[in-house]
Amino acid sequence: MALLAPLFLLGLAAVAVPVILHLSQRARRDPVRFPSLAFVRRVPFKTTERRRIRDRLLFALRGIALILLAIAFARPFLERGALGTAGVAAAREIVILLDGSASMGYGDRWSRAQDAVRNVARTLGPEDRATVVLFAGVPSVLGPPTGDPVQLEGYLAGIEPRGAATRYEPALDLARDLIEQSDRPQRAVVLITDFQRVGWDGQADLRLPAGTVLDAIAVGDDEVQNLAVVGVTLQRSPERGGRVTIAARVANLGGRDAEVRVRLGTGEQTLHELPTRVPVGEVALVQFPDIALPTAATPGWVAVTEDALAIDDVRRFVLRPIPRIAVLVVEGRGAGEREVLYVRRALAIGRDPALVATVRTTPGPDDVREADVVVLNDAPFPTGETGRALRRFLEEGGGVLWAMGPRARAIPEDLRDRLGRVGGQPVDRLSARGGVLGIADYGHPIFTPYRNMRGSDYGAVRVYRYWRVETADSARILAWTDDGAPILTESRVGTGRVVLWASDFGNTWNDLAVRAVFLPTVHEAVRYLSGHKEPPASHAIGQMLEPEDLGVDTATVELVLEAPDGSRFPIGEDRRSPAPLSQAGFYTLRPLAGGIGVPFAVNLDPAESDLAQLDRPAFLAAVAGSEDGPPVTTASLSLSAEERERRQRLWWYVGLVALAILVTESLLAGVRPRGIGA
Amino acid sequence: MNGARFLDPTVLARIDNLELVARTVVDGFISGLHHSPYLGLSTDFAEHRQYMPGDDIRRIDWRVFGRTDRFYVKEFEADTNANMLVLLDVSRSMDFGEPVGKLDYGRMLAACLLYLSRRQRDRVGLVTFDGALLDYVPASAKHLELALHTLQGRQAGGQGDLAGPLRKAAEILRRRSILVLVSDCYDEPDVTVRALAALRDRGHDVIVFHILDSAELTFPFEDASPFEDLETGERAPVVPATMREEYRTLIRGHCDTLARRLGDNRVDYYLADTGKPLDFALLEYLTRREWLARVK
Predict the structure, then answer these.
(1) Of A150, A270, A557, B86, which sees the most CB atoms within 10 A?
(2) Per the CB < 8 Å rule, is B93 touching A36?
(3) Measured between CB atoms, does A671 come within 8 Å of chain B?
(4) What kind of fold does domain A324-530 have according to CATH?
(5) Interface probe, candidates B161, B213, B227, B235, chain A, greatest A C-beta count within 10 A
(6) What does the longest C-alpha to C-alpha distance in chain A come to?
(7) Is the pLDDT of residue A490 over 60?
């Protein structure tokens, strides 16, 4: 039991007033001499005679009523009333789930959330134990369980919203585990959050153990105004020495239309600033004038005027030069101009990444070593020194696209166990007006442009001749002809890959070269075989960094990750462990020994910018829906003293009792003889 | 020195000699009047009237007889040998008041009236009473000193009662007189009126000076205290703050009732607050005395 306004207890002194008056009257011995009491006695008697404690019961009732009134005015409330009457002495296990997602940085949500934790801490009894779990994406326990309010509040020191997106499921899973492991008779979960809609998909199982008390404290706002840069696209082009066109998407996630100025910059410099109007609930596309591409990776950003949620007002990215892929094209000796034309033209128009093709009929070993990808266009596998260089190239991770036209009759014997075998004469389907191509695996990177386009132009390709390939067991069949023969396969040689097309690219044995799918297929195949991977424009907070995503080889170089705040940590002991990205800004992945690092940007997950709240009753029902045993109940554990007092309204009941006593006293006084001496 | 200051009861109370008090007050008071104070003196001719058998032949105006050959006598404004008695209530309830007690005030008032009347050539007398008749100084032209001496020595007596002493006084006052009752009139108005009406019926002119202390009128007490009745000694616990207004209403009603009922019986009533100067009371008396002389 606590009191909201304990000073009102001074009113208890009022109980003593009648007694003091009575005693003081009794103590007075000097009467006032007055000529005549004739008129005094005619006045309805209000003298001390009536005030004597003639009836101890009445006096007791009045005293009790005064005491109750003083208590009522002092606004009493129960500190631990939420856990029921049994909870007065029983130990509690309390898990405080504190939402640390980026949206908690909106306005004063974070301070309100911290206050809520402190309010819970104040309710801790000597036998209670509380654990604070900070959650956004991955939940983390802030410290060992404690029943010390000071220690519990100490856990909040230095803690700020993380910037990751809200996810309730992992946090509630952890809370469930902590609750289930507890041996305390009473268990409670305090969820302090803004109830952001993105945190729950409505499907996840969030149920808490039976008998758990759930206290859901909302710190969200009914009305929000938030502008966010939710995306940036970079369109590079090699013209004029390399240009890039940058477009930003600005979303209005608030309640009113907004006029905003959008700025583009690199480093500390603002390059362009454009005004735009963003209606409520819509996304405005802002395209800046193109700028010159830097020769090295350069940090850039797009920002809008800072609002209540600052973290999503800027979106960072890294401008990188257009990468180059060196392609060695080996053409079959005696191939006609028409037969090699299609591959040459296809490789000549690669823009991003830029494809630099070198055409050879008799390549040397150096040609192979300088290439990222080798295309054997209707040419046999090289022999001699070049052949050995190509094998090493493959063993070390190189890629070969081999179009086996009429001039490539056989697969070298030492590669047949991996590439398969080609034997006899080519299959001739000319008389049957050719066969039809069927893609076996649209999930392969080569078919990325058509992954979601079943029924693409591949079905229109007519295949008239092709080699019948007896694929090796390790080979992966990517496409078939309609007679069941594998026509496109992928095989691993060492760490390299060979994609084998058992026909030609010269529009002789098939018409693939004149189909729309030809160019994307060749480009994707070259890109895939070169091992080129375009680093993402930016990462999201909460993501795990895969150094390979940045094209960094972790196998040979020991790396260190530099965070935006300057902190550094190595990429795991085995140098392959992914590193968590927890800050918005520019990270740099750098060799531990020093040298030029690879910068990359980390931004807030755009979904977190949407501050819309979820259907709270449905969410709480999902959390409170226990399978068996006593149901999960929702109650308030962490209300402020004022809120607790307001909800409990004990003063009302105390006042009611006082009123009843006063009425009783009046009735009793009415039936008893009055002590009027007149 | 301002003469009015000598009319202040607070100042007069310091003077032991009642005669000196009366002389100071009356002389100071009269000197402040604009018209002649000697009302009713024989020099104040009023009218002629025809001689009637029994009239004193000394009052026949012979000059008029010489002109008209008829007997006319002169009428003057007042008779110069009227009886004037002060009936002073000296019951214990009169022993109240600060800084001037009601009894002291009444004593001074009585002295002043006696002195003033004597200067009017009236015969003056005194009656003091509480529950019974205590002193009786018959009206006489020579009894001023005796009356003042009696006043000087009289202390507050016992329990008061108007009816008995006034009935007794009515029995002994056979000659028509001007009777001035000085009392706090705590009896019921009916009792007071009946007793005074009896005097009035016997031909006396009666003037009532109702003496009250301002504390009796305003009830200014603050602390809850037991109150003791001065006359009966009875006590009652009182919380003044809770009853002040009702008390004031009652005492005001009592005074109003007395004034109205006495007026109905042709008895003059004057409420004298002991905090106020005596000249108010004297002026009231003189006004009444003048009126009596005119209608005589």
Answers:
(1) B86
(2) yes
(3) no
(4) Rossmann fold (3.40.50)
(5) B227
(6) 151
(7) yes
B164 in Cβ contact with B87 (< 8 Å): no
The yes-or-no answer to whether A84-223+613-639 and A227-312 have a common fold is no
Nearest partner of B135 among B70, B200, B86, B64, judged by Cα: B86
Instruction: Please list every residue in chain B whose beta carbon sits closer than 8 Å to the beta carbon of residue A51.
Output: 239
Task: Tell me: pLDDT of B3 over 70.
Answer: no
Window 150-169 of A: residues touching B by CB (8 A cutoff) are none
User: Does pLDDT of A82 surpass 50?
Assistant: no
Closest Cα in chain B to A41: B236
* C-alpha to C-alpha distance for B180 and A495, rounded to whole angstroms: 145
Report yes or no: B228 at the A interface, CB cutoff 8 Å. yes
- In this predicted model, which residue has the larger pLDDT, B49 or A362? A362
- Cα dihedral: A104, A108, A110, A116 (round 10): -120
Q: Which fold has domain A227-312?
A: Immunoglobulin-like (2.60.40)
**Rounded percentage of chain A residues whose pLDDT exceeds 70:** 88
pLDDT at A472 over 80: yes
Q: Which positions ≥6 away from A573 have C-beta within 8 Å? A: none
B225-229/A269-278 β-pairing: unpaired
* Beta bridge pairs of residue B83: B123, B177
- pLDDT(A158) > 80: yes
> Does pLDDT of B33 surpass 60?
no
Packing angle, helices B18-31 and B278-295, rounded to 10 = 70
Within 10 angstroms of residue A389's Cβ, the number of other Cβ atoms is: 21
Q: Under an 8 A CB cutoff, do A31 and B235 touch? A: yes
How sure is the predictor about A628, in pLDDT bands with cuts at 50, 70 and 90?
Answer: low
> Of the CATH numbers 3.30.200.20, 3.40.50.410, 3.80.10.10, 3.30.70.260, which one belongs to the domain with range B3-34+80-295?
3.40.50.410
How distant is the Cα of A21 from the closest Cα of chain B, in angstroms? 9
* Mean pLDDT for the stretch of residues B105-133: 86
User: What is the predicted pLDDT for the residue at A136?
Assistant: 85
Q: What are the residue boundaries of the structural domains of chain A, listed by start?
A: 2-78+649-671, 84-223+613-639, 227-312, 324-530, 539-601
| CA nearest to B235 within chain A | A31
User: Could you tell me what percent of chain B has a pLDDT over 90?
Assistant: 17
CB A11 within 8 A of CB A638: no
Query: Is the preceding peptide bond at A535 cis, omega within 30 degrees of 0?
Result: no
Q: Predicted confidence band at B39 (pLDDT cuts at 50, 70, 90)?
A: very low
Structure confidence at residue A399 as a pLDDT band (50, 70, 90): very high
The Cα A152–Cα A139 span in angstroms is: 17
Q: Mention the CATH class of domain A84-223+613-639.
A: alpha beta
pLDDT of B13:
64
Q: What would the pLDDT profile of A48-64 be if each residue is shown by its tens digit?
A: 444 455 567 778 888 88
What residues contact B141, with CB distance under 8 A and at least 6 apart? B81, B118, B121, B123, B124
State the burial class of residue A557 (Cβ atoms within 10 Å of its Cβ: 0-12, 13-18, 19+). Answer: middle
The interface predicted TM-score (ipTM) is 0.79
